[in-house]
Amino acid sequence: MAFEMAAVNDEKKCCYCAGCLIVCPAGAIELRETHISIDKEKCTNCSACVRICPAGAMKIEK
Fold first, then answer.
1. Which region, left, alpha or beta, applies to residue 4 given φ > 0 means left and ψ of -120 to 50 means alpha?
2. Please, are residues 52 and 19 in contact by the beta-carbon 8 Å criterion?
3. Is this prediction's pTM over 0.90?
4. CATH for 6-61, among 3.40.50.300, 3.60.15.10, 3.30.70.20, 3.30.870.10?
5. What's the pLDDT tens digit per position in 4-48?
């Protein structure tokens, strides 16, 4: 079940540290060759990725 809100990644700010990938309890984040991919169907809107991101690239939005 998809939530109305989900994590999104600002690729211009992202430093590709993979911290978000490690802390995501739903396994919704994948590190691709050129970007971070977020599966909005898996994202539970927990904000763990937002809190861990050192670059401020992650946020929760509709």
1. alpha
2. yes
3. no
4. 3.30.70.20
5. 788 888 999 999 999 999 999 999 999 998 889 999 999 999 999
